[in-house]
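Marked as duplicate of an earlier ticket. Keeping the data here for the record.
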Amino acid sequence: MLAAGDGVLRQITIAPELPGALDAVRRFVAAGVTVAVGHTVGTYEQARAAFDAGATVLTHAFNAMPGLHHRRPGPIGAAVEDDRVTLELILDGVHVHPAAARTLFRAAPGRVALITDAMGAAGAADGPYRLGSLDVTVTDGVAHVTGTDTIAGSTLTQDVALRNAVRLTGRSLPEAVAALTSIPAEALGLGDRFGRLAPGFAADLVALSPSLEVERVWGGGRDLR
C-alpha cells in the first residue's frame, strides 16, 4: 500500500485489535502517513497501545466503535485523555447526538476536527445511490443501507457542519472555524501550509454571510464563483 500510494497516501485508519496492527501503525508512521484508530471493537488498552505506537487520530468519534462506558472507556476514553490525539466528529445531528458532541468538545478542547464522512449524495437530492458495493437510500438527507437502519456515510457538507457547531453545540465562531481548518490541517501534518490566513499559506478562502451561508469561494487565490 505504501508503494502504491507513494506521494498520495495521507491518512489511514486501523483497528488496533487486529493481528499485526501495532507493527502496521509504526510502519505507516515511519513512512510519514497519519494513522487513525477506528472501525474497531478494540478496548481502551488496545487503543492506548496504538496511540503509543504513533497513531494520532480517532476516526469519526463514537461511530463504528464501542461507546464511552464508565468501566470500559474504550477508544473514545483513550483518545480524550491523550493530548497527542485529534478526534474526528461527524456533526450532522444524526451520527452523534448534539449532547455527545458538546461533551466531546468540552473534554478535548482544541482537538476536535469536524469531518463529513460524505458519500455521493452530499449536496444532492434524496433517492437511491451506491456506496461502494452497497445500495443506499437517502431520505430527508439521511443515508441508510437500503432496507436497513444502518447509516451509510452522510450527506453533510462542511458549511452545515460549521453552522451545527455554532448552533447545536454552542461553540464560538473561532472555535468552530478552527475545527474545520487549523485543527485538521495540523492532524495531517499540513499545518505549515493550510488552515490559516497568513503569508505563505494556501490562499483557499470561503466568505460567509452573517448567517454562516457560503457566499464566495477562492481556491489558490482564484475566485471560484
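See parent ticket for discussion. Helices lie at 21-30, 44-53, 74-80, 98-107, 158-167, 173-180, 182-187.
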